[in-house]
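User: Quick one: structure for sequence A, then sequence B.

Assistant: Sequence A:
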Amino acid sequence: MTLLVALIPIVAFGVVLSVVTVPFVALGPGPTFDTLGEVDGKPVVDIEGTEVHPTSGHLNMTTVSQRDGLTLGQALALWMSGREQLVPRDLVYPPDKTKDEIDEANNTDFRKSEDSAEYAALLYLKYPLTVTVKSVNEDGPSAGKLEDGDAIEYVNGKPVTNLDEFQALIKETKPGDTVVLDYRRKNGDLGAATITMGKHPDRDQGFLGIGVLDAPWAPFTVDFNLANIGGPSAGLMFSLAVVDKLTTGDLNDGKFVAGTGTITGDGEVGPIGGITHKMLAAKDAGATIFLVPAENCEEAKSANEDGLELVRVETLDQAVAALKTLSAGGERPHC
């Protein structure tokens, strides 16, 4: 009877540990991906339509893992491991949004980071700015005539070199007018699209049904083959991979470099979350050098990851310059 009575609270506590969930999410080191390598048989950074130079070593992007729906026992075990951080669930999944909405927002940020990474790399490599088609409405007047990535050079025979010139000419049109847009297509030829302008409910001018922006343009395509990786923090490493593949020599001197950081189209590197988790993931993968956004430096230093050199970066230009010192033996900016 004494044994049975003693076992009752132990069993009850075991049930609580295994059944009761807690309002916390565990954050920890996530998978890393070599942006110079392949995933599922495809290059992570796939460039077609121009010469691609051989690369070596690693330029790994890093991620943070998230574990939701934890039982009390799982939460305690992860916390005691010292590798995981427990944070209130509302900080990761705000109660006013569904999990699907948050995941979709993260995926949208990731797709935007891919575009920014391409633009930043092409700008670094001195490709010219053009009026570039960013999107084409499926049921708009330009559907089937223009494609994402087309560079528009003329509107009705008048040259356009920037977005302001393009918009000024489009503002002169009315619904029903016909315009001819001369364009260059990636991995293709010069073309001309004759488009009958549509009507937009909020504008008097003609409507093309496209999104355009000033962006550096190259005649080849750059595709990123990573799926189910949310958020914008891979931007810097994607840009570095594009630069490495389009230039001679090894940007990383054949070494194992990892890093993180958002990037804008003009090459500014921004801060990210979970820097200490990403550093641990990089070290576990074998990295010896880690590129840290300048605004994350203080937090990165607090991790005390021995054997991982922390290189401070604020721009893509600075990141490339820092990596070039690996072979030249120069001094790198450190956190």
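Sequence B:
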Amino acid sequence: MSSPLTAAQLDILREQGFVVVPDFLPAAQRDELRALAQAQLEQVIAPVEYEADLAYPGAPASRQAEGGGTVRRLLDAYARDPRFAAWATAPAVAESLQRYFGQAPVLSRAHHNCVMTKHPRFGSLTGWHRDIRYWSFDRQDLVSTWLALGRETAHNGGLWLVPGSHVMDLSAERFDDAQFLREDLPENAALIARAVSPELAPGDVLFFHCRTLHAAGRNQSDQVKLSVVHTYHAADTHPLPNTRSASKPEVPLAPAPR
């Protein structure tokens, strides 16, 4: 495991709402997680989420349609295998987030906590949104880690992000009923034009804020793209009772002793 985020990287995360950290996960551990994810995907080990169930643009019309068995996410990565849990609670992740929050971080098992897939042909595109749109916490200050298990580019469905959008106050009228940014509005088109799509090499990690606007296109390659995604908040941030955000027990993280 590499060192925790530097002060300069933390500044970038705070200022633009995301930062890419190269080679955060050593090759041997990255390859082990990739092989594990591929095996569980091939075996369709539950719990999973199917593209057809979300009905995003480009997804199969139903589970009975062509491509209907295409998996979008392998859910609850933390509980799937101790190796996924070890990554989610890795000392370098914990210390990075402790430096960001200024206190002990906590892993949410209710959101993300998955192996995210993007399949050729039947992998859907994801419109512009903020993750916080469907989360319920008493503070909107959460950070996710996106671990690339292979190369990620705009060509194979890599993320697009709008720098600085996490601190923007955007009116409700700029979003549709599902809380996706309305691309038909000129002011939103101008915002989207500022987006960037950072290329990720295997083992790179993207740290990004829950209010950062992001989207992802179709996978135009011939290989499935695999990423491991987890979300964290500070110890003094809490999920609201009786919401999805409070539906699973959380995991406090402790940095490695110095």
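The chain has a mean pLDDT of 95. The chain has one domain: 7-247.

User: Thanks, that's what I needed.
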